[in-house]
Amino acid sequence: MNKEELLKKLTLISVEGKTVKDLYGEISAACMEEIVKTWDEKPARNAYYLSVEFLMGRMFFNNLMELGVLNEVRNIFAEKGFDLNRFEEVEDAALGNGGLGRLAACYLDSAAGTGYALHGYGIRYRYGLFRQRFENGFQKEEADDWLKWGDPWSVRKESEKRTVRFADMDVTAVPYDMPVLGKRVNTLRLFQAEGSERAEKISEYLYPADDTEEGKLLRIRQEYFFSAAAVGERIDEYVKVYGGRFDRFPEFNVLQLNDTHAVFSVAEFLRILTQEYKVSFGRALQLARKTFHYTNHTILPEALECWDEELVSRILPEIAAILKKLQVFAAREWQKKGCGKSEQDEMSVLRNGRFSMANAAVFVAEHVNGVAEIHTKIIKERLFSAAYKYYPEKFLNVTNGVTQRRWLMLCNEELSALYDGIFGTGWREDLSLLSAENFLRAGGAEQLAKIKRAKKKQLAEYIAKSEGITPMPDAIYVSQVKRLHEYKRQLMTAFAILRLYYAMKAGELADFVPMTFIFGAKAASGYRRAKAIIKYINEIAFKINSDAEMQGKLQVIFVQNYDVSYAEKIIAGSDVSLQVSTAGFEASGTGNMKLTMNGAVTVGTMDGANIEIAQQTGLRNNYIFGATVEELARINESYDPSEIVGRSPEIKAVTDTLIDGTFSDGGSGDFKELHTALFQGASWHKPDHYFVLYDLEQYVSALLKMNSDYRNAGAFARKQAENALNSAFFSSDRAIATYAEKIWKIDRAQ
Ligand code: 26V
Questions:
Q1: Ligand 1, pocket-test mutation among 95, 103, 300, 485, most atoms within 8 A of CB
Q2: 370, 359, 367: which is closest to 392 by C-alpha?
Q3: Are 732 and 102 in contact (CB under 8 A)?
Q4: At residue 750, does pLDDT exceed 80?
Q5: Is 367 considered catalytic here?
Q6: Count of C-beta atoms within a 10 Å radius of residue 198
Q7: CA distance 108 to 54
Q8: Residue nearest atom 23 of ligand 1, based on CA coordinates
Q9: What are phi and psi of 142, to 5 degrees?
Q10: Are 561 and 534 in contact (CB under 8 A)?
């Protein structure tokens, strides 16, 4: 890239009479003009990341940083009287929902950043994840019209469009390519569905509700649509060079399935080879087994995709036939291996009229990986135990990671500059060059504390502007930011806050350091209990924040429309990271890594990557509490939440607020339903399925211990420093290098 050329061009852009949108388009377009010139040729062997979600966030600042011109451009436009921060109005590209989609974005960033040829394939949704706003404490959803800012970072590739066929319609898949910048320029290719009004529906929304038959069909169409477009393209490219003999296909194409959403690509691969190129099914399957790899991201039964055979047959009869044939082949193999009946059932691709997409993936994939040590252990021992018994060589762990470029260099320029001063700039490419010992010796802890104060101030200003409530300047900022889900236990945090509140009202906790709790979360629009928890927390916030006695002591803020850009601010400006999922349920978590990287201490459970974070950064620097997976397995049958409230009047007092009129759910009955779920159970969930009350007391103790430790500012800063400086393992550069070496077998460009 010719930096001088680019800067010259940018200097010529005038700001007179232009809107923020105009300028955003113009500056981005000028950068793109340079970038496309350097778009790298693909090497022979490429890896492809197939994902329904790519939560890229705002591209502008990240790309300018990667081009190495961010500060210069800031200055150029400051001189013209335009503050580049005005682009913070620009909508995030929120084509994802949470950790899974953000992981995909971090992985693309790290692969490009470190020189691996990894490209993304996904869907170009017309509307991303909804925009959230609170109305009287209730979540309201609005369509996320991200394209209203234009899409200057993508190039439409009209000439490379292709047709995807369903039984009842043909759909055109038009690719939009987004460059991913780093040592290499890789490509994120998103397909847009076109051709008719019905066709366009396929790429209209991310995760359309699938509680109706129509919704399910639409989800199946989405998954097949992008899977077929991706695989069809890979095969066509191969055939152009090597013709219809597929022996060398796996040498050049590595296809990584990000969860089960792209598993139809396996069936499509088998379909094309057997039907269009007359390869035998057995041989096609052999080739598939050298091409595909599968990452599992959840063990929650309700999130493991199963599609009705009848529905798939209706719109994709050939694909359904292939999946059925896969089951027959698999059963034959299992028979030979001597698998028992129940083991075969557990592994089956088709059972009781439903296709298990996870089982299909496990059977075909050359590698199956979990995303944190404990999660991989659970998939080996429980979720896929039979498959692990017969195919142990497939299974491995790759603990997740996050890119330090966005989650440190971009969101915390101050800390990055401090690191530059102490270590030189090499850490930016190799986080393991950070050394806690040298940092502390150089007086880093005090500097970090200063920076933390500055980041908290920036965050407070941003929250004040966006939410109309100002965080207390000198409080401990304690954040829980992630999707809203019962297993993540935002409700347990709500109860813990109420416990603190009632204790203070009773004149206890004299030495309490003021705390501001910051929540950010969106609830899936059809997930009633998650929405009830949002309303409940907002009710608590209202009560506490308007209680004169709590002024300067305790504060609760639920920010609206938490997204990647909001995350960048909260993550840099938090003292404490809450990671309190029920042990065994959070596959990994990645917000925990980002917060650690920015020096937060964790109050958390022995779940997901928290365990490895505590190992890397030291138990003494974090507050680990609650039941372990083993303990929960032991008590599972006998657990009775009523016993806990029977024993503890304090816990009873807080859970009663769900039913005694302390808080209003607007007459919806939603709070009562939360109470019922806790004490009676709901649908197939037993009472307090996620052990909220079981861990509550220990949670409150952990928060109080952290609170009292905070009084010793020096010691606390040291904890924060040790966390930040020991977070190198959680760089996605490390994760990508592991995928490249152990799974993809691809080399870095030199
Ligand atoms: C999806 C759904 C959809 C239906 C309702 C319940 C439910 C519950 C969970 C999910 C999650 C699907 C997969 C997912 O997003 N997993 C996340 O992947 C992250 C990246 O590996 C990981 O850090 C998170 O722990 C994991 O939850």
A1: 300
A2: 367
A3: no
A4: no
A5: no
A6: 13
A7: 9
A8: 589
A9: -130, 150
A10: no
Question: Which residues in 615-674 belong to E strands, given as ranges?
Answer: 623-624
Say if residue 1's pLDDT is above 80. Answer: no
* Predicted local confidence at residue 329, as pLDDT: 98
Mutate which of 53, 211, 298 for ligand 1? The one with the most ligand atoms within 8 Å of its CB, which is: 298
Query: Tell me, what DSSP letter sits at residue 472?
Result: P
Six-digit token string for 260: 């089960």
Q: What is the mean pLDDT of residues 595-624?
A: 98
Phi-psi region of 681 (alpha: psi -120 to 50; beta: other; left: phi over 0): left
Q: Report helix angle 264-271 to 317-337, nearest 10.
A: 100
Residue 377 appears among annotated catalytic residues: no
Q: Is 483 a catalytic residue?
A: yes
- The model's pLDDT over 683-706, given as tens digits with 9 standing for 90+, comes to 889 999 999 999 999 999 999 999
The number of the ligand 1 atom at minimal distance from the alpha carbon of 485 is: 8
Give the position of tokens 């609206």.
Answer: 560
Is the CB of 526 inside a 6 Å radius of any atom of ligand 1?
no
* Ligand 1 site, residue 609, Cβ cutoff 6 A: no
Residue of 488, 499, 569, 718 with catalytic role: 488
Do residues 403 and 410 lie in contact, with contact meaning Cβ atoms separated by under 8 Å? Answer: no
The Cα–Cα gap between 409 and 598 comes to: 10
Q: How far is the CA of 589 from the centre of ligand 1 (A)?
A: 9
DSSP assigned state of 429: T
- pLDDT tens-digit map of 367-424: 999 999 999 999 999 999 999 999 999 999 999 999 999 999 999 999 999 999 999 9
d(CA 297, ligand 1 centre) in Å: 6
pLDDT for position 683: 83
Please report the atom of ligand 1 found closest to the CA of residue 259: 13
Tell me: the pLDDT tens digits for 181-232? 999 999 999 999 999 999 999 999 998 888 899 999 999 999 999 999 999 9
Mutate to test the pocket of ligand 1, among 297, 399, 586 (most ligand atoms within 8 A of CB): 297
Mean per-residue pLDDT, 743-747: 97
Q: How far is the CA of 503 from the centre of ligand 1 (A)?
A: 35
